[in-house]
Specification:
Layout lengths: L1 E4 L2 H12 L5 E5 L13 H17 L21 E5 L5 H6 L7 E5 L3 H14 L4 E5 L3 H24 L9 E4 L1 H13 L5 E5 L2 E8 L13 E5 L22 E2 L3 H6 L5 E9 L20 H25 L3 H12 L11 H35 L13 E4 L3 H12 L4 E5 L7 H7 L3 E3 L7 H4 L7 E4 L4 H14 L4 E4 L4 H14 L5 E3 L2 H13 L3 E8 L2 E9 L11 H4 L5 E7 L13 E3 L5 E3 L14 E2 L13 E6 L1 H7 L11
Parallel strand pairs: 1-2, 1-4, 2-3, 4-5, 5-6, 12-13, 12-15, 13-14, 15-16, 16-17
Antiparallel strand pairs: 7-8, 8-11, 9-10, 9-11, 18-19, 19-24, 20-23, 20-24, 21-22
Helix pairs in contact: 1-16, 2-14, 2-15, 4-5, 6-11, 6-16, 8-9, 8-10, 9-10, 11-12
Protein name: Potassium channel family protein
Pfam family, one: TrkA_N
Keywords: Ion channel, Ion transport, Membrane, Transmembrane, Transmembrane helix, Transport
């Protein structure tokens, strides 16, 4: 396996392949002077010590256990890793690291162009290699995936003709931002579902608090995990892999769920086809009412009422037809009628009043034009936070991760205020298109967070790539509001642990969470390198649960076994059967599945598609259903469990 990258994701992915799948890995990183950040040593600790000292001295005696999550890769042993330093993945570098003989190559540079160029070169060097690319641009990623797969199919056809065995030459394009965004949003918002939506398949999981006395917990479709014993305590620690029996239990069996009292659960609520992805929302013409202010609309209404009143009075005075009287009034209003020298006194007075109304109409019309132009101008400009805004989310940083999180929050109709120092940041165009208020300025400057209404916000998400910025924003936000829910991204694991414990001890009644993008994304990238379709990953406190779609054939742990026999607590569990790839029972219209004994298993489908057709996913299969080689199933698995399904021997506990 070869992994090429320039940030923490590359190091964590290499550690995942070594520690979980037992693979030998060659890691290609830039020279020390060109790296974005070292993966193990806590750089931010020295720069942020001054910010943390004032809290440590006051709370060190109260600090309890607990951990944070950093953005660095795990520091497993380096015995199975070969480290190569190269500024760019050129042809010579790819040949040197053995791409021509490698089974899989992961290109996880932060720059999309670098990954695409290296992928094209790698496919030319070794047409049979399995490629995993990290791309932020979704549309470009789909085109590149199709292009590389077509090249692999043509080359595979040539090698088949020469007697070579068929190889898995698939290309998988993933985005760490897309993987992490739903988890970050769910962490910041209480009760938000964790959703995995890929290739039209949607899985939704939600955390549920333990039932009160006399209440019965809704089990959902199945229980994915039992949360740690302290997860419902704001001052409790996020369960890690080393938290023992008090930590979260992944994929528990029925007995474990029944025996767990007072512990929250994460349950699966929905497995269905979501249909084609929605097109991007584009800024359109604002509604007519928004073009003019309320004061201007009242002024226009008053002038219109005056014109009607003048026309009615003129009709009564001159006994003229109402339409003709209205016409004469408009002529007087715009000063294009002849003077009423020889008319009655009443007619002359009405002409003077109409001229006066016409003079009042000119500034009102000018104001309307200026307001309309200003409205169209501000449609493409950045909005400022409204004065009465409250119970919103303050999002710090509009980079790759921040942009995806912003889009997800707006899809959930959550009010957001963004804070960004760079007016040319990647997510500025998205914020402008979605009409989200943005405060431009350095968060370390006084008054920036106040302008974002942090004192009335429900949560603060600090998602910049600078640890000191995230930490200072969280500390300042907590100083303004002690119960503010905060989610921060810290790179170094040891530093994140110290910060987490200190903040938890200083503010025991508030919720503090630290999340790592690479920690969430690395398992999906590693699974794709092993040649399996990883649908996505969701965080369960500090652990990760993977969702994968695979064919039963070739997996002895599943072949010919019933669902009850195939289920292994703490490792994997079959969640649904894809009837689109499975032979349905005759005459059942896809609503029943034939088990291995030829008996129909009466099951229901998992939902409908966007077009209103049956989704073809069967999620309530009986435990007696026998899995066949041609069955394609959707399963949830831990990292170690997926490695065991793939025939790899990991080095650790199976529950990871």
């Amino acid at each position: 396996m070869v992994v090429c990258g320039d940030d923490g994701l590359a190091h964590r992915l290499a550690a995942e392949l070594r520690g979980v799948y037992g693979e030998q890995v060659t890691l290609v990183v830039p020279p020390s002077g060109l790296r974005v950040r070292a993966p193990v040593v806590g750089r931010a600790r020295a720069a942020s010590a001054a910010l943390l000292d004032r809290f440590v001295n006051a709370t060190v005696n109260r600090g309890g256990g607990g951990t944070g999550v950093g953005d660095n890769g795990g520091s497993d042993g380096m015995s199975d890793e070969r480290l190569v330093e190269a500024a760019e993945p050129t042809d010579a570098v790819l040949v040197e690291v053995g791409v021509a003989r490698a089974a899989a190559l992961a290109l996880v540079y932060d720059d999309d162009e670098t990954n695409i160029r290296a992928a094209l070169n790698a496919r030319r060097i070794n047409p049979r290699i399995r490629l995993v690319l990290r791309l932020y641009n979704r549309r470009l990623g789909r085109h590149i995936e199709e292009l590389l797969d077509q090249a692999a199919e043509l080359s595979d056809g040539d090698t088949q003709g020469r007697g070579y065995p068929r190889a898995d030459t698939s290309t998988t394009v993933l985005s760490d931002a897309d993987t992490a965004a739903p988890a970050l949003v769910a962490t910041a918002l209480v009760g938000t579902s964790k959703i995995v939506d890929t290739d039209g398949l949607m899985l939704r999981a939600v955390e549920r608090h333990p039932p009160r006395p006399g209440e019965v917990a809704d089990p959902g479709l199945c229980t994915l995990a039992l949360l740690s014993a302290t997860s419902n305590d704001p001052a409790g620690s996020d369960g890690s892999e080393d938290s023992g029996d008090q930590g979260p239990q992944m994929l528990p069996d029925a007995a474990a769920v029944a025996a767990a009292t007072g512990r929250g659960t994460m349950v699966l609520e929905q497995v269905s086809y979501s249909g084609p992805p929605l097109s991007a929302v584009r800024a359109g013409v604002p509604p007519f009412a928004s073009l003019f202010s309320q004061r201007l609309r009242w002024s226009l209404a008053g002038l219109a009422a005056a014109v009607v009143a003048l026309a009615v009075v003129l009709t009564l005075v001159t006994e003229d037809h109402p339409l003709h009287a209205t016409y004469v009034t408009l002529l007087d209003l715009f000063a294009i009628n002849d003077p009423a020298h020889n008319d009655s006194m009443g007619r002359q007075i009405l002409q003077l009043l109409s001229a006066l109304v016409g003079l009042l109409l000119l500034p009102v019309m000018l104001a309307a034009v200026l307001e309309a132009l200003g409205t169209f101008r501000t449609v493409s400009a950045l909005r400022k936070p409204p004065r009465g805004l409250s119970r919103h989310v303050v999002l710090l940083g509009l980079g790759k991760i921040g942009t995806r999180v912003l889009t997800r929050l707006r899809e959930l109709h959550i009010p957001v205020v963004c804070v960004e120092a760079d007016p040319e940041a990647r997510g500025m165009a998205t914020a402008r298109r979605l009409g989200v208020p943005v405060v431009l300025g350095d968060v370390m400057q006084e008054g920036v967070l106040e302008a974002a209404k942090i004192h009335r916000a429900d949560a603060l998400l600090a998602l910049t790539s600078v640890d000191t910025t995230n930490l200072e924003a969280v500390l300042y936000g907590r100083a303004l509001r002690a119960d503010l829910r905060v989610v921060l991204r810290l790179y170094d694991d040891e530093f994140a642990t110290a910060v987490y414990r200190t903040l938890r001890a200083a503010h025991p009644d508030a919720v503090t969470r630290s999340r790592s993008v690479s920690h969430l994304a690395a398992p999906a990238f590693a699974g794709a390198m092993m040649g399996r379709q990883i649908l996505g990953a969701i965080p369960v406190e500090r652990r990760v649960l993977l969702f994968a779609a695979l064919t039963v054939g070739g997996h002895p742990q599943l072949e010919g076994k019933t669902l009850g026999e195939a289920f292994r607590a703490g490792a994997w569990r079959v969640l649904a059967l894809d009837t689109a790839a499975t032979r349905a029972a005759p005459g059942a219209n896809g609503s029943g599945i034939w088990n291995g004994s030829g008996n129909a298993a009466g099951t229901g489908t998992g939902g409908v598609t966007a077009a209103g057709e049956p989704s073809g996913l069967v999620w309530d299969l009986p435990d007696t259903y026998v899995l066949r080689n041609e069955d394609r199933v959707v399963l949830g698995a831990t990292r170690r469990g997926l490695a065991e399904l793939l025939g790899r021997r990991g080095r650790g506990r199976p529950g990871r």
